[in-house]
């Protein structure tokens, strides 16, 4: 097997419209395609993230995440940004709270966390 990159990450939103607005208008991800699947009463929104994608789903009554952020399973998504300080400024300007900036003890890079509308932990890293 020769894995090259992550193709996509799938996220299930409790409020599809709110999450769609967050990922497109706050984070600025481009919509590739959006489909409504009537047999599942579910939307599937594909968003461009560099060479990868985020799939944003809606389902009726999705199960809540057990705890934050130390539950077994996917811990968080991390996005690389070119201008770390500007990214924080833009998030805060749009009403998104960010945690205090930390320094990675191994790489020396700056990083911080914030949350999507469902409380999914997201990270930006320089």
UniProtKB/TrEMBL annotation:
Keyword Metal-binding: yes
Highest taxon of source: Bacteria
One GO MF term attached to the UniProt entry: metal ion binding
Chain ranges passing through the membrane: none
Pfam families membership: Glyoxalase
Keywords, in A-Z order: Metal-binding
InterPro entries: Fosfomycin_Res_Enzymes, Glyas_Bleomycin-R_OHBP_Dase, Glyas_Fos-R_dOase_dom, VOC_core, YwkD-like_dom
Residues annotated as domain VOC: 5-126
Database matches in Gene3D superfamilies: 2,3-Dihydroxybiphenyl 1,2-Dioxygenase, domain 1
CDD domains (UniProt xref): VOC_Bs_YwkD_like
Name under which the protein is recorded: Glyoxylase I family protein
Phylogenetic classification of the source organism: Bacteria, Bacillati, Bacillota, Bacilli, Lactobacillales
């Amino acid at each position: 097997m020769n894995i090259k990159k992550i193709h996509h990450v799938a996220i299930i939103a409790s409020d599809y419209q709110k999450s769609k607005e967050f990922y497109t208008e706050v984070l600025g991800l481009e919509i590739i395609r959006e489909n409504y699947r009537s047999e599942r009463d579910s939307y599937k929104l594909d968003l461009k993230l560099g060479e990868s994608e985020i799939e944003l789903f809606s389902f009726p009554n999705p199960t809540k995440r057990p705890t934050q952020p130390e539950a077994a399973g996917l811990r968080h998504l991390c996005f690389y940004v070119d201008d770390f300080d500007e990214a924080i400024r833009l998030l805060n300007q749009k009403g998104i709270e960010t945690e205090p900036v930390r320094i990675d003890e191994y790489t020396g890079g700056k990083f911080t966390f914030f949350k999507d509308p469902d409380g999914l932990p997201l990270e930006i890293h320089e």
